[in-house]
Amino acid sequence: MYQQAAWVITLLLSAFVIFIFLFVLMKSGRRVEYSKVQAKGYFLRSIWLVILLVGFSTASYYTLKDLPFERAEGKGAPLDVYVEAVQFGFEVSEEKLQVGDYVAFHVTSSDVNHGFGLYDENMNIVAQTQAMPEYTNTVYYQFEKPGTYTILCLEYCGVAHHVMSKEITVTK
Ligand code: CUA
């Protein structure tokens, strides 16, 4: 559904840009006194600036609120799990979890940049962040289904990048 919406919006915006180009093209043959247009132009430009500022601030506020990862708000204290990525594997402080556990994965790396991708049993990604040296990224996830979850590296980090994985068992 989102893809269809994105597609429609792209088409509409493209049509709008084409319309502007045609409009300018049609007007380009006409000669006018520049100073007269100038005053009107400055006026329109300041209004346009306000519209853009208000429009983009509003759009940014509402779209950035729904970033695709869960945050700590309103779910109580999370269970802290520490993840350290290293060529070529993951050290995880807690490999056995329970359904309902609300987990804060604190992810770092002891060598180079890695990725941290958490996959459910159907290999759908459910949480992801970057594993960076000397920095800790935290990503939250609440386990709602039992099963074997897999952590995979999402960033090419060396010859054995493809073997970097770790399983986490979630029981009832
Ligand atoms: Cu670690 Cu790719």
How many helices in DSSP terms?
2
The rounded Rg comes to 25 Å
Poorly predicted spans: none
Number of DSSP strand runs: 9
Main beta-sheet strand count, sense and barrel state: 5 strands, mixed
The assembly state of the depicted protein chains is single chain
**Distinct ligands, ions and cofactors found in the model:** dinuclear copper ion
- CA distance, first residue to last residue: 33 Å
Classified in CATH, the superfamily of the largest domain is Cupredoxins -  blue copper proteins
Known CATH architecture of the largest domain:
Sandwich
Mean pLDDT reading: 90
CATH topology of the largest domain: Immunoglobulin-like
How would you sum up this structure, described in words?
The chain has 2 helices and 9 strands. It is of the alpha+beta class and 172 residues long. The chain has 2 domains: 2-64; 79-171, Cupredoxins -  blue copper proteins (Immunoglobulin-like, Sandwich). A 5-stranded mixed sheet has the order 3-9-8-5-6, with no helix packed on it. A 4-stranded mixed sheet has the order 2-1-4-7, with no helix packed on it. The site of dinuclear copper ion has 8 residues, from loops. Residues 85, 114, 153, 155-157, 161, 164 line the site of dinuclear copper ion.
